[in-house]
Amino acid sequence: MTWFMKADTREAVLAAHPTLAPLWADFVNSFQALPQIPAEVLALCEQRVAQLHGNACARRGAAQVTADKLEALACWHEDSRITSPERACLEFTEVYVMDVHAISDEQANAVKQYFGEQGLVALIQALGLFNGECRLEKLWQLPGANSD
C-alpha cells in the first residue's frame, strides 16, 4: 500500500485514475516500439535503471530480455554475454541515472556508433521514462521499491 492510497503496484495507482491510465499506457507503449533502438536493448537498460534504484519490482521490459542477459546484467561491464552495443547503452544508462550532467561525449558517441544520433535521442527519452517511473515508485513507497 502506498502512503496515499491502497495500491501495491504502479499499475494499481494508475488504474485509480481512469482518465490518465490509458493515456499513460499509450505513452509507455510508444517506447516499446521505438524503431531507432532495439526493444531488447531498451529493456536491458530499463532493468539496469531498476537495479540502480534498488527496485525489486518486475520491470515491464523484463520479458524481452533473456534470462542469460538478466543474469549478466549486474556485472555487465565484464560479462561476455553483453554485446558491445548493449555495453555502450548500459554505460550511458548508469551515468544517466547517477548524474545526467556527467555523461561524456565519448559515452554519447559510443551509443551513436551503434544506433546513430536518433538512437541516442531515443535512448535518452526512454531513460527519462524508466528513471522517472522508478523514482515515482520510491516516492509512492510501493512494495519492492527500495526507499533509501
Question: Keywords for this structure?
Answer:
single chain; 148 residues; mainly alpha
What does this 3D model show about the protein?
- With 148 residues, the protein is mostly helical.
- It has a single domain, classed as AhpD-like.
- 61% of the residues lie in helices and 0% in strands.
- The protein has six helices and no strands.
- The chain has helices at residues 10-15, 20-32, 39-52, 67-73, 84-98, 105-140.
- Helix 3 packs parallel to helix 5 (84-98).
- The relative contact order is 0.17.
Write the topology of this structure.
Elements: H1 10-15, H2 20-32, H3 39-52, H4 67-73, H5 84-98, H6 105-140
Oligomer: single chain
CATH architecture, by name, is: Up-down Bundle
SSE topology string:
HHHHHH
Overall mean pLDDT stands at: 86
Question: Can you identify the CATH class?
Answer: Mainly Alpha
Helix content: 55-70%
Number of strands: 0
The CATH fourth-level homologous superfamily:
AhpD-like
Question: Uncertain runs with pLDDT below 50, 5 residues or more?
Answer: none
How far is it from the N-terminal to the C-terminal residue, by CA? 17 Å
Described by strand count, sense and barrel closure, the largest sheet is:
none
| CATH fold name | AhpD-like
Number of continuous helical runs = 6
In total, the number of domains comes to: 1
Strand content bin:
under 5%
- Output the structural class: mainly alpha
| Rg for CA atoms | 15 Å
The outline comes out as globular
